[in-house]
């Protein structure tokens, strides 16, 4: 029996939540994975070195501010410059696969934005990296229908965990049907094994948050926040943080509570899938 291990991204730590909530949330994720019988492996860049399985002092260093955000297009440059960085979904996928990990837990994936030509590197990374990723859907600020279409185009194996419809990050449901469904971690592990045997890329296991916000409410807030962003000229890298911040304000902090809940639930499910894979 192999070790059950779960990769965790650290952009959540460096850019997702403020200090000290970011560190407290990461520590809760580590504990959740351990409680489910798996080993958590948070991945980041410290002093220009890739670290797979960050120690607590390294997590604190990243969480306290000043670190960059590492995606695939700037990862090599950050290493060469000796920087600290939290890894995005795309960078974590790549580094986790290089380290031999097969399961990765995150909150929401990046995808297609309403702004033309603005697409996350997460999508291409998912298509070419044979890892099972547990997420609660694409981030709520995205064009969800276009993101699901792009996942199909890229040949990503998309499956719902006890759901027939794509969860929308903060919302456990959406109007968009999924092509496959599993009921147990063991079934998810079996599907991943088939995808791996076929030489396919990633398996995206969508896990709906147990208690979230309604799809209609979130979309109304997102549309208003997008209108505000256009008025203020907010775009590029600043757009997603701006929209998520406005979502938190408009929901009275409820979106942050849901975000923390789904992160923990995804970490627990990922650990269970990792345990099922470890019996090979």
What is the gist of this entry?
The protein is of the alpha/beta class and 280 residues long. It contains eleven helices and ten strands. It has a single domain, classed as Indigoidine synthase domain (Indigoidine synthase fold), CATH 3.40.1790.10.
Task: Outline the secondary-structure elements.
Blueprint: E1 5-8, H1 11-16, H2 21-35, E2 39-46, E3 49-52, H3 56-63, E4 68-70, H4 75-80, E5 85-87, H5 89-98, E6 103-105, H6 121-128, E7 132-135, H7 144-153, E8 157-161, E9 181-182, H8 185-197, E10 203-206, H9 215-232, H10 239-250, H11 254-277
Parallel strand pairs: 1-2, 1-6, 4-5, 6-7, 7-10, 8-9, 8-10
Antiparallel strand pairs: 2-3, 2-5
Helix pairs in contact: 2-11, 5-6, 8-11, 9-10
Total of domains: 1
Gross geometry? globular
User: What class would the helix/strand composition place it in?
Assistant: alpha/beta
> What is the N-to-C order of secondary-structure elements (H for helix, E for strand)?
EHHEEHEHEHEHEHEEHEHHH
Find the CATH topology: Indigoidine synthase fold
Helix content: 40-55%
CATH class bucket: Alpha Beta
* Computed CA radius of gyration, to the nearest angstrom: 17 Å
The span between the termini is 7 Å
Average of per-residue pLDDT values: 95
Largest sheet: 10 strands, mixed
| % residues in beta strands | 5-15%
Q: Any idea what the CATH superfamily is called?
A: Indigoidine synthase domain
Low-confidence parts: none
Query: What is the count of helical runs?
Result: 11
Compute the number of strand runs: 10
């Amino acid at each position: 029996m192999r070790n059950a291990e779960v990769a965790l991204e650290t952009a959540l730590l460096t850019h997702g939540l403020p200090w000290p909530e970011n560190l407290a949330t990461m520590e809760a994720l580590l504990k959740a994975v351990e409680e489910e019988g798996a080993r958590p492996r948070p991945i980041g860049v410290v002093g220009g070195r890739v670290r797979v399985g960050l120690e607590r002092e390294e997590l604190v260093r990243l969480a306290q501010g000043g670190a960059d955000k590492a995606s695939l297009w700037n990862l090599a440059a950050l290493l060469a410059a000796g920087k600290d960085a939290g890894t995005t979904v795309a960078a974590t996928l790549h580094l986790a696969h290089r380290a031999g990990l097969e399961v990765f837990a995150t909150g929401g994936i990046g995808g297609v934005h309403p702004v033309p030509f603005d697409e996350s590197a997460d999508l291409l990374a998912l298509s070419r990296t044979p890892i099972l990723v547990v997420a609660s859907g694409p981030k709520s600020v995205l064009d969800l229908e276009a993101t699901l279409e792009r996942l199909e185009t890229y040949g990503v194996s998309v499956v719902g965990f006890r759901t027939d419809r794509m969860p929308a990050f903060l919302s456990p449901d959406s109007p968009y049907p999924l092509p496959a469904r599993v009921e147990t971690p063991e079934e998810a592990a079996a599907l991943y094994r088939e995808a791996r045997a076929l030489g396919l890329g990633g398996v995206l296991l969508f896990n709906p948050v147990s208690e979230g916000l309604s799809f209609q409410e979130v979309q109304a807030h997102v549309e208003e926040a997008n209108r505000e962003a256009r008025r203020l000229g907010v775009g590029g890298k600043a757009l997603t943080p701006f929209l998520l911040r406005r979502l938190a304000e408009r929901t009275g902090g409820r979106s942050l509570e849901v975000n923390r809940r789904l992160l923990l639930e995804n970490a627990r499910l990922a650990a269970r899938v990792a345990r099922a894979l470890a019996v090979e």
